[in-house]
Amino acid sequence: xxxxxxxxxxxxxxxxxxxxxxxxxxxxxxxxxxxxxxxxxxxxxxxxxxxxxxxxxxxxxxxxxxxxxxxxxxxxxxxxxxxxxxxxxxxxxxxxxxxxxxxxxxxxxxxxxxxxxxxxxxxxxxxxxxxxxxxxxxxxxxxxxxxxxxxxxxxxxxxxxxxxxxxxxxxxxxxxxxxxxxxxxxxxxxxxxxxxxxxxxxxxxxxxxxxxxxxxxxxxxxxxxxxxxxxxxxxxxxxxxxxxxxxxxxxxxxxxxxxxxxxxxxxxxxxxxxxxxxxxxxxxxxxxxxxxxxxxxxxxxxxxxxxxxxxxxxxxxxxxxxxxxxxxxxxxxxxxxxxxxxxxxxxxxxxxxxxxxxxxxxxxxx
Length: 366
What we know:
Layout: H1 5-21, E1 27-28, E2 31-32, H2 38-45, H3 53-62, H4 66-78, H5 84-92, H6 98-103, H7 107-115, H8 117-129, H9 131-147, E3 157-162, E4 165-170, E5 175-176, E6 179-181, E7 210-212, E8 216-217, E9 231-234, E10 239-242, E11 245-246, H10 257-260, H11 333-340
Antiparallel strand pairs: 1-2, 3-4, 5-8, 6-7, 9-10, 10-11
Helix pairs in contact: 2-9, 4-7, 8-9
């Protein structure tokens, strides 16, 4: 009998190892952490992958602050009379993250993110949890656009190759043109559009090509610490850079599940942690999916109701999965108005402000 004991032990450990290898990720009480596939990430980044590097960096960083995106877009619309230096000074006084302040340099892009808040939120969630994969997806889409013959240098921007990396920079460092294209056809084989994604005037053109509208002068924002020249995409390290160093988002909207489930930074466990969906976060937890937070949770007591969203690993859009296109909340507006300052009232407004970029064929800059 003893001669069988080593064999049985080996068989036991091999079966355990096999079961462990089959797991898609670390688990908490049987819940696996599922991540976006490369194809899903490519779909997410398609609307912005052909933008200049620094603008891609700003968008990825700002997408981790969806509430501030809404606030900033509403603010820009309400202050459409401000231009140039006055606008930059007024923006600088706001409490938003530097990435969100930077988006005011491109109000039509900011408005598009507000209008497509579910998409922007999903992008932020993906960046928080799959930073390297998101940057890789941008590069994949740029190469696909090149292979389709739709991405090349123009009078508005320079497209260059640095090894296997495709870099996009403004031709004039003081004027930025936002490419105008159909994100679902420009890459060759048509992509399935992100659910509920809606085009915004001046940023979308039917057909497979790329055009450009009005250039945005960025000189007025250069003297502020969040302006254009403070941002870049570090393709070598697969990250967003701010002031020549790794950008770190301090948003509490999304859980960094890779660290949270391992008990690393951002893990607010302890006696109130219940593991599965609908866990009860600590007093400093804001807006994460399924969180029934403490005193500082945005949304108040109403967030404990039947409409409270529960974290489902592997689903899209994190805390904002209840948003449809247009930025309209389903089952959230009553709970989260205090965090937005009046709630979400419809999508990004298409009038007023600085919504340029709709003029095809170059032209002047602002």
